[in-house]
Amino acid sequence: MNTRVVVSPHESAGHRIAVVTFVPAPGNLVTWTADALRALATAVRKIDSSQFDAVAFVGTGTAFGAGADLRGFQPARSAADGEQLARDGYLAFAAISALAVPTFAFINGAAVGGALELALRCDYRTVSASARNIGLPEVRLGLVPGWGGLTSLCELVGVTTAADVAITRSLAGRHASARDAHRLGLADVVLAHDDFLVSSVAWAAALLDNSARVAGMTDIAATADLSWSPAAVRAGVAKRIPGTLPAVDTALALLSTWNDQNPAPGTGDRTTARKARAGDSLEADTITAFGTLLHSDECRASIYAFFAVQAARKRSRPAKPRPEAALETPITQVGVVGGGLMATQLALLFAERLDAPTHLIDLSADRVNLALERISSQLDRSEKRGMSAPERERVATLITGSTDANDHSPCEVVIEAVFEDLAVKRQVWASVENVVSDTAVLLTNTSSLSIEDQGADLRRPERLIGFHFFNPVAVLPLVEIVRSPHTSPAAVDAAFALAGALGKTAVLVKDSPGFVVNRLLTRLFSDTLELVDAGTDAHAVDNALVNDGLPMSALTLLAYIGPAVQLHILETMNASANERFRVSPSLRRIVENKLTGYLGDDGRLSAEATAIVDDIDYVSTRMLPSTPESIRTFLLSGLADEAWRMLAEGTVESADEIDACMILGANYPQHTGGLTPLLDRSGASRAANGVTFHSPGVASAPVPA
Question: Whole-prediction pTM value?
Answer without folding.
Answer: 0.91
